[in-house]
Amino acid sequence: MSSVIWISADDAEEDLLSFYRWLQDEPDIRRHAVISMEASAAGEGEMGGALDVVKLVIDTNFQILNFGLAYAAWRGTRRQPSALSVERDGVRITLDGGDPDAVARVLRALEE
Q1: What is the per-residue pLDDT across 80-90, written as a single tens digit (0 to 9) for each?
Q2: In sequence order, what are the residues at sequence separation of 6 or more whose Cβ sits closer than 8 angstroms to the Cβ of residue 24?
Q3: Dihedral sign from CA coordinates of 17, 9, 38, 89
Q4: Which residues lie closer than 8 Å to 99 by C-beta, 6 or more apart?
Q5: pLDDT of 41 above 80
Q6: Alpha-carbon dihedral sign for residues 16, 83, 56, 19
Q7: Global confidence as pTM
Q8: What is the chain's alpha carbon radius of gyration, rounded to the nearest angstrom?
Q9: Residues of the chain by 3-state class (helix, strand, coil), percent to 5
């Protein structure tokens, strides 16, 4: 059984691409997830096609903690990274800081 984690960043393509590359370089994440860049669904009257979402198809052995550690490490390399929105099973959370308490809240929400 697998589930999906979606990651997006409003008007921050460079940061999203950077985080995508960071996730690809994380062995623990690569081992238990298929990572891809995809276009989000276009709204009515909008043109689609831009790669603006990172998709992780995760297996049952995926550890959300590894995702949190990867995010915190990536965030530490950026001067002022944009906020990232993370969604899993209808739960959507915005990460806009590297505060360990905020990251812990995200991890708890995504594991439920």
Answers
A1: 878 888 888 88
A2: 30, 35
A3: positive
A4: none
A5: no
A6: positive
A7: 0.81
A8: 13
A9: 40, 30, 30
